[in-house]
Structures are given as C-alpha cells and as structure tokens.
C-alpha cells in the first residue's frame, strides 16, 4: 500500500496520510506524482473555506486586485473596473480574459503571452486561480488544492477508466484529480450562468496531471443535474454541434475522480480546526 502524506504548517505541523487506491486511475495519477518534483508547487497557501466568510472574501478580493494590477501595469487588457467578488458576470469576464490571452494548454500562441515577462505570465495564470477562489465563497466547503506550475498536461483520462472510477459523490477527505483544462466544464458554465460560451470557454474534463484537491466536506453533485440540463438547453445548438444532447452524456456529467482516501482517527471538526491554523503545505510526499 502506498500513501500520499501532506505536512501542513510551519510551527507544530500536522501530517495527513491518504491511502492511495489500487486501480488504473490512481496508478495513472501516481505515475505523474512520482515526477512532480521537477516543477514547483504553485501556491502552498491554496486553502479555501477554512476561515470566516469575511476573511475569505477579503483575501479573495486582495488576490484578484493584485493580479489585475500586475497585468494592467504591463498592458491594460482588463478594461472593466472591479466591482465585487460576488459579481459573477465580472468573474466570468475575467475568466474570459484569462482564456483569451493565456490560450489553451497546447496553444499558447497569443502575442501577449509570448512577449509578457514571467511576472505578468504568472499573474495571468494566477488570475484563473483568483477567479475560482472568488467562486468558492459561500457555504463553508473547505478544501486544499495542490498544483505544480509548468508541469506539462499531456495525458488524457481513458474514457472507460473515467466512467468506471469517477463518481458524483465523494466523501470527506478524499484526494481527487484536479481539473487542469483551460476553460470550464458544463457544470462550471451552468453554475456561473456564463454567457462567454465558446470553444475557449467550454472544455470537458479530459486531461490530468499530478494536480489534486482534497475536499474536507462531502461532495454530492447529483443535485446539479437539473440546472446543468437547463443551461445546456439554453445553448442547445452549441452543445448538439459537439455531440452533446443532454446532461447524461459522459463528457459533461459532473464527475469527480478519487485516487486516495484519508486515514485519520480525529473527528472531521477537529481536523478542520487543525488545518485552519496551518494553511500552508510544507511537504508533499509519497511513501
């Protein structure tokens, strides 16, 4: 049995151990994890939902304003003034800017991206994270996310493996593959009521990497299906042209892809409290 071990916090750190599942999906993820150290961890403070709503909102606002300032100081491509981290249309606009100027994973050909200095490229990449941090505000759904900056996203999930080992329900403390596409799933588009729909915006979940997230709450996406179906029908021509006639098409089901399970004797509330005081990933290891 192999384990993912996370060390959290600088002072008095805690260790979380996750038993890696033995199936083709977990094997594929583990292969990526075994070479991840060639790239830096994106942001060791990427924890959502562990603080008070007020603190979470202030942090999200500061994050997004810093990204916008860095980008616009180089070239003012973001021309809409900041409104609020609760303004979903503004967040959709920022995500559209990110998609346009960053480009798809294998099509980063925009002149802005090619010519921008590293700090501005980083700010543009972080703009995507900032938008999703804003979108995670609301009911407390604490999670941590680990992504590796620059790690190539070159492998696709086998469709049969995705269907066989994906799930719309995931229990507390389950390590899941992180979405690594540049764009949004149907679930995201429907949640955001995003009107910037197009081939840059819509990207079904296909690729994977070492990137993962851990929800410290129980996920159940089944209630999302009616809203997703309604959005799909509003944009029926777009989706049918891509072979998607309803929400039960496997390309768009709101699946999560579990690869490891938390082994810990502490209660859920105790764990959340301990993590809230240690919102920094100091070490990621496979044992």
Please characterize this protein's 3D structure.
The model has no long low-confidence stretch (mean pLDDT 90). Helix content is 38%, strand content 16%. It has a domain at 52-141. The strands form three sheets. Strands 3-4-9-7-11-2-1-12 form an eight-stranded antiparallel β-sheet. A two-stranded antiparallel sheet has the order 5-8. By secondary structure, it is an alpha+beta fold. It is built from ten helices and twelve strands. A hairpin with a 5-residue loop joins β1 and β2.
In short:
This protein is α+β, with helices and mostly antiparallel strands. The protein contains ten helices and twelve strands. Strand 1 and strand 2 form a beta hairpin.
Low-confidence stretches: none
Tally of extended strands? 12
User: For the CA atoms, what is the radius of gyration?
Assistant: 19 Å
For the sheet with most strands, the description reads:
8 strands, antiparallel
How many DSSP helices? 10
Report how far apart the termini are.
9 Å
Find the structural class using helix and strand composition. alpha+beta
Helix content: 25-40%
Strand order of the largest sheet: 3-4-9-7-11-2-1-12
Proportion of residues in extended strands = 15-25%
């Amino acid at each position: 049995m192999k384990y993912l071990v996370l060390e959290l916090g600088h002072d008095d750190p805690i260790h979380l151990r996750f038993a890696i599942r033995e199936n083709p999906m977990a094997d594929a993820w583990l292969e990526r994890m075994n070479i991840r150290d060639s790239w830096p961890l994106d942001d060791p403070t990427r924890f959502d939902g562990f603080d008070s709503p007020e603190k979470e909102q202030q942090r999200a606002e500061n994050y997004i304003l810093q990204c916008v300032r860095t980008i616009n100081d180089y070239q003012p491509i973001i021309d809409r003034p900041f409104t609020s981290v609760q303004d979903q249309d503004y967040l959709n606009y920022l995500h559209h800017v990110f998609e346009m100027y960053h480009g798809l994973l294998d099509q980063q050909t925009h002149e802005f991206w090619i010519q921008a200095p590293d700090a501005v490229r980083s700010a543009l990449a972080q703009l995507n994270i900032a938008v999703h941090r804003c979108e995670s505000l609301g009911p407390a759904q604490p999670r941590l996310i680990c992504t590796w900056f620059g790690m190539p996203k070159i492998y696709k999930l086998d469709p049969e493996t995705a269907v066989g080992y994906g799930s719309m329900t995931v229990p507390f403390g389950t390590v899941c593959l992180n979405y690594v596409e540049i764009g949004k799933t149907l679930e995201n588009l429907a949640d955001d009521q995003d009107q910037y729909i197009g081939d840059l915006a819509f990207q079904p979940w296909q690729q994977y990497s070492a990137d993962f997230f851990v929800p410290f709450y129980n996920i159940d996406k089944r209630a999302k299906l009616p809203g997703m179906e309604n959005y799909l029908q509003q944009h029926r021509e777009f989706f049918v042209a891509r072979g998607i006639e309803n929400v039960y098409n496997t390309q768009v089901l709101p699946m999560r892809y579990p690869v490891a399970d938390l082994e810990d004797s502490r209660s859920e509330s105790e764990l959340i409290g301990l993590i809230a005081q240690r919102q920094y990933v100091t070490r990621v290891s496979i044992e």
